[in-house]
TrEMBL record:
Residues 1-21 form the signal peptide. The keyword Translocase does not apply. Residues 79-244 form the Peptidase M14 domain. Gene3D superfamilies: 3.40.50.880, Zn peptidases. This is Zinc carboxypeptidase. It comes from Umboniibacter marinipuniceus. InterPro entries: Class_I_gatase-like, Peptidase_M14.
């Protein structure tokens, strides 16, 4: 039975209209907030179902947020008390808290959940259905809504509104509610981030006073470091919907993808002095969001706005809210769902004094989310059948042989980094994306590389991964796999004008997120549908290693988990070596960075110990019976197998350190290495015994950064043999300190020639083919190639400074830059030749002297002739640096990068290693493990942590 929209709006959206009229908004009671909170739930409720206040001790929203434990208690009770609810735990947080979805519907519908889920999956694959079958399924299928709240733990009113809405749906005895549930399955995800909510709840307890506090600047409202927004590892879960790095995301996405819900709402909060933002978003909007979904989003927004108008509540749409990035909760749109965002002004618990002099209470915030919930459900009940028809059509278009996604395939080239490749396949499989393996070489037509090079004919190597875009999940595939997200010209003009006028960027988040670039895997896109010579890619369980005899045992260094192998063995007291070049022993060849354990170093070693750790990590352990290297390859007793030193790690933490970067670094150590480390308070360095650590990692800071005293302590520690690793903005501070030869671009402009000469020397060392006949000549050669013979004319200093000030306006907001890698350096083990580097800040490093530029921005090639010839030809000035006129320099890989920014970034260093005394400083220009998903640059960080104490510092002999 279809319910009229008018009756739903009156019955569901205005259930509290009598108590919320303008004359009754603040009734003359002794406690108006209590009256207000009590009015949220105003229905004829079943007495055998626990009311929220019976567990909370107060009405929903009355000066208190419901704790995670209270919410879990209520939903578990309701699951046993109500025939309208079925509760399912879909994940467990890092701290052991459950995450639930509550299926709320009529008892008859709940008994058929599995059947309805199967029907939803049939509609999502309409190519297998006739038109009559589609019509029958749509007629039988109830509306489906996924209603999710408080993914940011300190945005609390959403979860409280979920409590109120769930109780109303399961306990209200009105005809309107029963009719709604007879035709709809409401899936309520009440608390998407229980760990963050628990952290914020504890903060409220700590800073709560005896009197209400309506000052939104107080700690009661803001919380303190690391704040409640993020989960245990300080991840923003609303950026993780396709990276799937966190258990909360993996569990949630699995269920969403099972159901293809017609509607997904996401209840947030924003600044305390704001009002209420609802969809639809403004541009830029990802062009893979279906047009029909956008149309329905507009319709739902109008109807939600009408519900607010009836209450006289202020609101707006769009403005700062855009949907270009794919990893938000609107992820579901790429699969055909309608997505609605709520952004309610944050009121904490006591409410906030507004500029107009009124105080908005927490109960009002809860009520806004509550009314929005029922407004959207009313819209869905009215339009569900039409939405299903549009859903079927867009799913058909996705697999059409002449459609937008018909002739495109993504190819990931073979790699020895098996664990990283398998991680990617796991993420794709979790999103119903079909992945294939090329069983043989495949000849195809036009391809484009990550750095933009086009080839007319191309041979795909056997063993490559192939992901045809022509699949049911075509829109999602394109959104996360295409090298560039489309941004329309109008948005680009608006963005440029904003930057020219000194205004903030229109881009709310990163503009680049391609999965293969994040994972540091070489990939090409092919302009055709590949469907022959393929087999489904199956992740094979690692073969278990068996105990065997040998003189040494080796794990190949191509795999990221080889570092975990080395680190875990060292933690168990095993002496470990790592190669710094390729090697071959017997029939086995090994990549640089391979981990070797010798019986000579470990005379009392139990071989099963090595085997157990390798099996635990899924790595192949090779035994060798000779240390003799064939030809020019190294022997095992030479300088190419340095002894590693067990990393003793400290991660600087607490204000003003960025919790995001602190968290992603912490997560990398825990999830990839699995070894002990300490978070230490950055403001207490002067009181600590830093001799306990040989690796200290410094995240970027919000504000002034480390004190002069802390910098001095770290300098002394480094000089005595420590490995200091700085990330992003932290590198800015160390590059300005006295103990490094690396400077910032801003500080180098008055004398750029020495820095540019170092770039030239590196290029010559790598690419110049010297004419050896001059070396053998007995006469003086007049044609010497050296830095001073380059014909480079640098502009006056004032002009260089002015150019840089201009170019700095256009710095990227999350763009992939092509990096050129010193492949011989131990820090670059596991990196591909053209390394994708994510830039989102203006930390531009300029190494000089003995500082080693391991990776620089920009990759050179010569379209005609050789690069060696181009280096000895004419040069032209570009900003602070010069490039050969006969070369092409690839800079932008993906995302918005203005030409001015490219000129500023090119030839600056992304990764620098510098010897300081007996120790070293390793500086990253940006965060190395962005959102826990940048596995390519994360490998560089893990190299620094595990290999650094042994390969980069002076050896210490302990007597």
């Amino acid at each position: 039975m279809i319910i009229s929209r008018a009756s739903l709006v009156l019955s569901l959206c205005l259930v509290t209209s009598a108590a919320w009229g303008s004359d009754n908004l603040m009734p003359p009671q002794s406690d108006p907030d209590l009256e207000y909170a009590t009015a949220i739930l105003d229905g004829d409720y079943h007495l055998n179902i626990t009311a929220p206040k019976d567990v909370l001790g107060y009405p929903v929203g009355y000066h208190r947020m419901a704790s995670p434990a209270q919410i879990s208690t209520l939903f578990n009770r309701w699951d046993t008390e109500s025939e309208r609810m079925k509760l399912v735990q879909y994940a467990t947080s890092h701290e052991g808290r459950p995450l639930y979805v509550a299926y709320i519907s009529s008892p008859e519908n709940l008994a058929k959940l599995d059947e309805f889920k199967q029907m939803a999956q049939q509609l999502a694959h309409p190519d297998e259905l006739s038109g009559t079958e589609v019509d029958t399924l749509i007629e039988q299928m109830p509306a489906t809504a996924w209603m999710a709240y408080s993914i940011h733990g300190n945005e609390t009113s959403g979860a409280d509104a979920a409590v109120a809405a769930s109780y109303h749906l399961i306990a209200d005895q009105s005809e309107a509610t029963q009719q709604l549930l007879a035709n709809m399955i409401v899936m309520i995800d009440p608390m998407m981030n229980p760990d963050g909510r628990a952290r914020f709840s504890k903060t409220l307890e700590q800073f709560r006073g005896t009197a209400p506090n309506v000052d939104d600047q107080s700690l009661l409202h803001s919380g303190d470091w690391p704040f409640g927004r993020m989960n245990h590892y300080l991840f923003d879960l609303n950026r993780d919907f396709f990276y799937l790095t966190q258990p909360e995301s993996r569990g949630r996405v699995a269920l969403i993808n099972d159901w293809y819900p017609q509607l997904m709402i996401d209840g947030h909060e924003m600044g305390a002095q704001d009002t209420f933002l609802m969809g639809p978003p403004r541009e830029p909007i990802n062009n893979h969001v279906p047009a029909s979904v956008r149309t329905w989003s507009d319709q739902f927004a109008e109807e939600q706005a009408a519900a607010f108008d009836r209450h006289g509540w202020r609101y707006y749409t769009g403005e700062w809210f855009e949907n270009l990035y794919t990893g938000y909760s609107n992820y579901a749109e790429y699969r055909g769902s309608i997505h609605i965002l709520y952004e309610q002004s944050r009121m904490a618990e006591d409410g906030v004094r507004r500029p107009e002099g009124t105080v908005q209470t927490y109960a009002e915030s809860v009520h806004h989310q509550y009314v929005s919930t029922f407004a959207n459900l009313a819209s869905l009940a009215t339009h569900s059948k039409a939405i299903y028809r549009d859903f079927v059509e867009l799913r058909r278009v996705a697999t059409a042989s002449r459609g937008e996604y018909a002739n495109r395939s993504y190819v990931i080239l073979p790699t020895d980094n098996t664990s990283r490749l398998n991680q990617l396949v796991e993420k794709l499989n979790a999103q119903d994306i079909q992945v294939f393996r090329a069983e043989r070489e495949l000849s195809v037509g036009e391809t484009k590389s990550q750095s933009g090079r086009v080839q007319r004919r191309y041979t795909i190597p056997a063993g490559s991964l192939v992901i045809p875009n022509r699949q049911p999940e075509a829109r999602l595939i394109a959104a996360i796999m295409e090298f560039d997200a489309h941004i329309n010209d109008e948005v680009l003009r608006g963005e440029r004008n904003a930057l020219l006028q000194g205004e903030s960027s229109l881009m709310y988040d990163t503009t680049a997120w391609n999965l293969t670039m994040m994972y540091g895997l070489e990939s090409v896109v092919v302009s055709e549908h590949i469907n022959s010579g393929l087999a489904r890619y199956e992740i094979q369980p690692a073969e278990r290693n068996e105990v065997s005899e040998g003189i040494a045992f080796v794990v190949d260094g191509a795999d990221d988990l080889s570092l975990a192998y080395a680190a875990r063995l060292m933690e168990q007291g095993v002496e470990v070596r790592a190669s710094n070049i390729s090697s071959t022993y017997g029939n086995d060849s090994f990549n640089p960075g391979s981990v070797m354990v010798t019986l000579a170093d470990n005379p009392n070693l139990a071989v099963p110990q090595l085997v157990d750790v390798a099996n635990e990590l899924g790595l192949t352990l090779k035994r060798i019976n000779t240390g003799f290297g064939q030809g020019d390859l190294p022997e095992w007793g030479g300088r190419h197998f340095p002894l590693l030193e067990q990393p003793q790690i400290a991660l600087l933490s607490h204000m003003p350190m960025s919790p995001y970067v602190t968290g992603s670094t912490w997560f990398a150590i825990d999830s990839m290495l699995g070894i002990r480390h300490s978070q230490i308070h950055n403001q207490q360095l002067s009181y600590m015994d830093l001799r306990r650590y040989n690796v200290i990692i410094v995240p970027p800071s919000w504000g002034s950064g480390l004190s002069e005293g802390s910098l001095a302590e770290l300098q002394r520690w480094v000089e005595q043999g420590g490995t200091l690793i700085s990330l992003g903005g932290a590198s800015r501070q160390f590059a300005s300190a006295d103990f490094t030869q690396t400077a910032l671009l801003n500080d180098s402009l008055e004398s750029v020639e020495p820095y540019d000469r170092k770039v030239y020397e590196e290029l010559m060392a790598e690419h110049h083919q010297f004419d050896l006949s001059d070396t053998k000549s007995h006469t003086l050669s007049m044609d010497v190639v050296a830095p001073w013979v380059r014909d480079v004319s640098y502009p006056p200093v004032a002009q260089i400074v002015e150019r840089d000030r201009w170019n700095a306006r256009f710095m990227p907001r999350g763009s992939f830059i092509t990096g050129r890698v010193d492949a011989d350096h131990w820090l670059s083990f596991g990196a591909i030749t053209e390394m994708p580097l994510l830039y989102s800040s203006a930390t531009l490093l300029m190494p000089s002297g003995s500082a080693e530029a391991v990776i620089r921005a920009g990759h050179y090639r010569a379209p005609q002739g050789s690069l060696s010839e181009a280096l000895t030809g004419a040069w032209q000035n570009v900003g602070w640096t010069a490039v050969p006129e006969d070369s092409e320099v690839s800079v932008r890989m993906s995302g918005l990068l203005w030409p001015e920014a490219a000129q500023r970034i090119v030839n600056t260093a992304y990764l620098v290693r510098e010897q300081v005394g007996s120790g070293q400083v390793i500086m990253f220009a940006n965060e190395a493990n962005f959102r826990g998903a940048a596995l390519g640059t994360q490998r560089l960080l893990l190299n620094a942590i595990v290999l650094g104490p042994g390969m980069g510092t002076e050896p210490r002999i302990q007597l």
